């Protein structure tokens, strides 16, 4: 099975439709699928549900899909650094399902592992727990959270071999590996493609069985979201 595609547009061909759910990797601006997001914008699909830790930053990443009003609902953890996200949510234009960050990661992991629900202490006694079943275990209260799955995951890795085994670099690893497991189809953009067997098995972070399509990334801007410096002595 050939998993290699010539362009981001070709890698998404036949996968996009209105009303679909998409997982998008990244944390802040680290590990964003910078080449695939513009092709979703260009396709014009709308009423999307996007599962992502955040929605990019002003003028970058998933922000572009918010700008074109293609997103109906965000399932995420962080709204900061994105004024458009904030404005659309507060005006009622955008539906938002907030999650504690660890809970979001575990819901995605559960989706990939085939676990429909789990209990966590995070959120008990807050609005996060409103309307959700709760149980007591060994004298402690827990709230039930359900898995997250998607029609499509778009993720970014550093290297892939031709069989789809993936290697990530440092903080770009973030949500990408778990999202690769939790969608019907996973499309990955990578900076480097090598022959099968060229990645040390101990360095494979995501096995190729989870990856359906691979494309060489066309954008590797890796913008710094907040640059903090000190004057030279």
Task: Please give a structural write-up.
This is CoA transferase subunit A. It comes from Sphingomonas daechungensis. Pfam families: CoA_trans (PF01144). GO terms for molecular function: transferase activity. The structure is a single chain. With 233 residues, the protein is α/β, with parallel strands linked by helices. The protein has a single domain, classed as 3-Layer(aba) Sandwich (Glutaconate Coenzyme A-transferase), CATH 3.40.1080.10. It contains six helices and twelve strands. The strands form two sheets. Strands 1, 2, 3, 4, 5, 9, 10, 11 and 12 form a nine-stranded mixed sheet that branches. The relative contact order is 0.19. The model has no long low-confidence stretch (mean pLDDT 95).
Order of secondary-structure elements: EHEHEHEHEHEEEEEHEE
Number of domains: 1
Shape, please? globular
Question: Taking Cα atoms only, what radius of gyration do you get, to the nearest Å?
Answer: 18 Å
Looking at the structure, the CATH topology is Glutaconate Coenzyme A-transferase
> Into which percentage range does the β-strand content fall?
25-35%
| Fourth-tier CATH superfamily name | Glutaconate Coenzyme A-transferase
- What is the β-strand count? 12
The CATH class assignment is Alpha Beta
* Overall pLDDT confidence: 95
Which properties best describe this structure?
alpha/beta; 3-oxoacid_CoA-transf_A; 19% helix; Glutaconate Coenzyme A-transferase; nine-stranded mixed β-sheet; 233 residues
């Amino acid at each position: 099975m050939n998993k290699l595609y010539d362009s981001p547009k070709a890698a998404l061909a036949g996968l996009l439709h209105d009303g679909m759910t998409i997982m998008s990797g990244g944390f802040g601006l680290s590990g964003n699928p910078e080449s695939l997001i513009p092709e979703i914008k260009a396709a014009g699909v709308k009423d999307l549900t996007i599962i992502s830790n955040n929605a990019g930053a002003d003028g970058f990443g998933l922000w572009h899909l918010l700008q074109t009003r293609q997103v109906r609902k965000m399932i995420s953890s962080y709204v900061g650094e994105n004024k458009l996200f904030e404005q659309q949510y507060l005006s009622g234009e955008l539906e938002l399902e907030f999650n504690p960050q660890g809970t979001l990661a575990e819901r995605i992991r559960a989706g990939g592992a085939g676990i429909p629900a789990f209990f966590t202490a995070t959120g008990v006694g807050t609005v996060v727990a409103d309307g959700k079943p709760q149980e007591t275990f060994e004298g402690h209260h827990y709230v039930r959270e359900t898995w997250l799955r998607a029609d499509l995951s778009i993720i970014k890795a550093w290297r892939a071999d031709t069989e789809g085994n993936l290697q990530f670099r440092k903080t770009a690893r973030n949500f990408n590996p778990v999202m690769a497991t939790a969608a019907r189809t996973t499309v990955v953009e990578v900076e480097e493609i090598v022959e099968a067997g060229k990645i040390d098995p101990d360095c494979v972070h995501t096995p190729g069985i989870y990856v359906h399509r691979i494309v060489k990334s066309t954008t590797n801007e890796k913008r710094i979201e907040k640059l903090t410096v000190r004057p030279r002595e």
